[in-house]
Amino acid sequence: MPAHDVLIIGAGLAGQRAALAAAGAGASVAIMSKVHPVRSHSNAAAGGINAALNVDDSWESHAYDTVKGSDYLGDQDAIEIMCREAPGEVLWLEHQGVTFHRNDEGKLGTRAFGGASAARTYYVADITGQALLHVLYEQLMKNHETVDRYEEWFVTAVVQDEAGEACGAIARNIRDGSMELFAAKSVILASGGAGQAFKPTTNALICTGDGIAQAYRIGAPLMDMEMIQYHPTTLAGNGILITEGARGEGAHLYNAQGERFMEKYAPNKLELASRDVVSRSEQTEINEGRGFDDGTVALDITKVPRKRTLEALREIVNIGRDFAGVDITREPIHIKPGCHYIMGGVKTDVWGATSIDGLYAAGEVACVSVHGGNRLGANSLLDTLIFGRRSGEHAAERARGMAMPRPAESSLAAEQKMIDEIIRRERGVGRRVSEIKDELGTMMNEKCAVFRDQAGLTEAHEMIRRLKEESLHAYIDDRGTVFNQDVLGAIELGYMLDCAEAIVMGALERKESRGAQFRLDFPERNDGEWLKHIVISQANGDGTDVPEVSYSEVTMTQWEPQERTY
Amino acid sequence: MSEYTLKLRRYSPESGDPAFWEEFKVDLDGHRSVLDGILQAKDREDGSIGIRCSCRAAICGSCGVKINGRPGLACHMHLEEAQRRADQNGGVITVEPMGNMPVLKDLIVDMDAVHWKKVQRVTPWLIPEGEHPEREYIVAKEAMVDVTQSMACIQCGACVSDCLSMEVDPLFVGPAALAKAYRFVGDPRDGQQFERLKDLSEDPHGIYDCTHCFNCIEACPKGVAPMSQIMRLRRIAGSDHGIDDRNNGHRHEKAFVKNIEKNGLLHEADLLPDSYGGKFHPRAVPELLASLPVALKGLQRGKITPKKALLHAHKAPKDVKRIFERVHSQQKRYELNLYVSGKDEDLPGGEEMQDVNQGAQAHGTPASSSAERSPNQA
Known about the structure:
The complex is a heterodimer of chains A (566) and B (378). By secondary structure, chain A is α/β, with parallel strands linked by helices. In chain A, 36% of the residues lie in helices and 17% in strands. Chain A has 16 helices and 19 strands. Chain A has helices at residues 13-24, 59-69, 76-96, 128-142, 210-217, 245-248, 262-265, 275-287, 306-312, 314-324, 380-399, 410-424, 433-447, 454-471, 485-509, 527-530, and strands spanning 3-9, 29-33, 49-50, 110-111, 121-122, 147-151, 153-160, 166-173, 179-189, 222-223, 228-234, 252-254, 297-300, 333-342, 345-347, 359-361, 366-367, 532-538, 547-553. In chain A, strand 1 (3-9), helix 1 and strand 2 form a beta-alpha-beta unit. The longest helix of chain A is centred in the last third of the chain and has 25 residues, at 485-509. Chain B has 378 residues and is α+β, with helices and mostly antiparallel strands. In chain B, 42% of the residues lie in helices and 11% in strands. A five-stranded mixed sheet of chain B has the order 2-1-5-3-4. In chain B, helix 3 (112-121) runs parallel beside helix 7, helix 4 runs antiparallel to helix 7 (175-185) and helix 11 packs antiparallel against helix 12.
């Protein structure tokens, strides 16, 4: 059985950063991902990474913006750590080889971003996430002697020992279908978000909530799951993202009547208000009949000088041309709010440790919580790197001096049986996996989007319970072992359904409007009753599916809740 | 909504059967991608269709395939465009796995065995000289913009798929890996520029193995223009560092240019000996002897005559000379770069540049313009 000090599941930025940190701390490391690491969804973070690195900026200012952006739901101790460590992290990235944009003096240059009181977003054109991901992968290749890479391995379960501590994982080698039990002293989940539970979404097809569900199933509590960020600028139909960098560079939003409507909703920050505010404003315009016929409003990038657009927003020039048939340097492009990011996830402390000993989580899969009710643009890359590194360091420390656990072989047999059972299901008896996924996504995007209410959410919850039932008999076509993506799709559907249920339960529970959660039936923020995290966990702890709601305090350090205007 | 027929190349290593073609009918708007089409077929008809895919927005590089015989990303080609191209030869959109890499299943190829192995060949990480500074490295803005073009590579393998040199020499380091090499050679923070270039020049499968076929430039969905990056590696290796490689790559290039300058058009009989230092150079003798059979065959078939081969009378016309003079008189070398968009159109003289860009885009190649080459020269 392969055995490592630290096993990392997921190889986006959080996972790769954790791997490098753990290896740097002397641990033997394995990093595993269901796709090749550079295919990870960190690629999609186009705009940049926030850090108060300029001498006239301060981490306190960055932290305050983040707290305010979170609608005061973010834990301030974690936010302080993230913002304080941000400048060092950006410099570390620069030293590893990230080709950050420079100013005329040859120093790191910045761009403006939403919800920020200073231009503190560092970037590589509009391929920042991609550049970071590929540079970290360069470092993984460099450190191949201390970091073993398992590329295209699909984890089906995290394994616990008798005391309940995480001691490894079971994974399927996608290339040949073989199953393997991996032993590890510490396990780090870094497998990203769950956006595929919504349709459309900006998220990649791989973002199916795997890690969130894997942790949840073995008893780790989930937190802030109701907080789903709808990004203000996505293409109608396919949900493809137009980076916030466009507005950062000066693009405006207009309704169908040609009004720059953000003047009404956020007179000071206008298009650069927090994402929840901008998305809500757009959706209000659309719902009240001032949008275009295709249910969109217009993003006008022609306000940005063309040379600048071609140099700094090259990727969305391509996206406009290839996916909407629009030359964004010449004409406005139609956009709408679309599912983009989950602020919630597996509840962790500031070292990425979950409530299960030996199990860590970092990046979008986790909820530290630094984003609270709403994440600021360009804080996600930062979150992945800071907490990826911290969990890598802590996991390596935990492993030091510890004996290698020997996870029970019986767990491997159980997972093999689970997969065989899916493959054996009779065709045509139940529904197709893809059909259920489609119904789930469409429904979530209808009932659990920018505006929510009790009736819609209740309906959504009932529907999820039904889909969970149906998924137990859902059938697939592929009976093979080599690249059987079909059977993985069936497992992913289960993960998405677990995530969706936690999302809807959190949204039902939170009877107020805060951050990304806007309840039409409770339109005000209610600090008296709801300035607290909602936690969803499996009550029984025996594998039966009985979700339960509880609460967790919000950590306050120096910022008292205020009315939030932009 | 329109109906499209997708003809997919299927292969299952477990079945024992050879690869075969299978047609699927899909119903989608024409501006949806070929990948959307394949996923619809997979969702509705046959979940066993194998294709790697993730982002659907041409940024993750998973879905490299050949559509109607040309390499690219399945998510990056509209159905209507694919249909239009298919109409020119038969009418059905065909999708098959990329070339130059072994097929694992259906549209999935073994990237590790070829592509990633080659990437690893170029020591793909930054090797700065000495300790890093306390804060960031101070480097010219233009230098970072310059390497952004090769950073834009998403490692999809489309260029590798259709590399003609790799077809002949599977050991060729290849377009993607060499573009990756430029990302370090062009990065002023890297301390190993000479060593990297020496290594890739001396390697018989290195930078001089490229035959300028432009296939990689055509294939690249991100405008990385791998061949241009290879040529830049050559210029920095040969002209800046004066690396005279054992493959005679650099000498061959010099001989080629000299040949044209002198004759106006290529005089092949001189090219070969000149590439080895001249007809009487000891290095040239064995090469000339080795090429005798080819020369004799040419004579036999009337492709060359002794007179043409030995007494080449053609002299370069004045216009050719003028071009050479103009190029030689330039103080700086100018390079093409996607991320440098030239002059702003608001400034005088900007219109011209912008028209060039648009013309280039209309022909499906990325907009680019000349930019001063600055990294590593300072």
